[in-house]
Amino acid sequence: MRKIKIVHIQLLPLLSGAQNVMLNILESLDENKYDIYVISKPGGPLVDKVKEFGFHYIPVPSLRRDISLLDGIAFVHFFLIFRKYKFDIVHTHSSKPGFLGRIAARIAGVKKIVHTVHGFPFHPYQKKLIMSFYRSVEKLAGLFCDTIVFVNNSERETAIADHLAQPEKAVTIYNGIKLPEIEMQKKEIGDKFIIGSCLRFWKQKNIIETINAAIRVCKKNENIHFIFIGDGELYEVAENMVNDSGYKDRIHLPGWQNNPTEWLQKFDIFLLYSKWEGLPLSILEAMSFGLPIVASDIKGNNELVSEVNGILVPINDIDRLSAVLLSLPNENGKLREWGENSRKLVKEKFNLTGFARKYNKIYDQGK
């Protein structure tokens, strides 16, 4: 029996949230049933991971993150690749591959086209004209696919209400994650209190304001330490802020790490004060390790975090964020309860099994 040829398209060859969600989907597929391909811009850790898993990899060098004259070339590349390989399913991720890939796939005659929205490309921090442009792009691209998957329910409802997606095409599938085996450690009096995060150092993740809050906290409590794992275009700016503050010994920036799970076990609290999100895998990973969460009160975050397992802080309120972080070392009992609830939520609502089953069901529909 001929295998089903499926290709997933990413923009950047990183191992961030959207890429790891894709890998979770692909790992769940029956290798006897599917012939699996991945397309992205070449040259990053995602490429190595794809090859490690034994999937086929196709580079498209013309892919760019920002709007570019090369987008037309990327579109032609997609079309030619789809015609050459005759894929049964094309699954796109994020805005640029989602727009170019969906239209090219439909024109090339691909039978099933799926797109996952890991957060809309438009957000409140853009100019209105740019927001309007991206909304129009999303509405147009939605006409060229069979299913649009939203990783949080809020954006699905927004898309339907604003006529960006047809209701019959729109589904919500929460990101899923494997529950690791860990031992919940008891906090000893006098231990350093570590607030940590795993994130990309760029505008979306609000790293500059987060560092500002960390500096404020360090000024008032010498027992609190911060660890921010990751890199990106704002890493050097963040590093200079920390060096200038005089708290380099308490605000640690170890850069990109290949073993984030080892670091998560060092944290007492996980912090993510981002400006916009889809459904952050970093928070899910922290929850799976039994960590209480402090996060910005935005779409996506507020479907993972509540008073049950942490605290949501209004965006652009550094005073409130600093006060919350300063209050937590004295809340051992509450922190333990929040951490246990984080693990429970992953097990019951954000598990990998249910996540994979729902995507497999989409692939099987209409056969």
What does this structure look like?
By secondary structure, the chain is of the alpha/beta class. It has two domains: 4-176 and 351-364, 3-Layer(aba) Sandwich (Rossmann fold), CATH 3.40.50.2000; 193-348, Rossmann fold, CATH 3.40.50.2000. 41% of the residues lie in helices and 17% in strands. The protein is built from 13 helices and 13 strands. It has helices spanning 17-28, 45-52, 71-85, 95-107, 128-142, 153-161, 207-220, 235-245, 260-264, 281-288, 318-327, 332-348, 352-364; strands at 4-9, 34-40, 56-59, 89-93, 112-117, 147-150, 170-172, 193-198, 224-229, 251-255, 269-272, 293-296, 310-313. The strands form two sheets. Strands 3-2-1-4-5-6-7 form a seven-stranded parallel beta sheet, sandwiched between helices. A six-stranded parallel beta sheet has the order 10-9-8-11-12-13, sandwiched between helices. Helix 4 (95-107) packs parallel to helix 5, helix 7 runs parallel beside helix 8 (235-245) and helix 7 (207-220) packs across helix 11. It starts with a strand and ends with a helix.
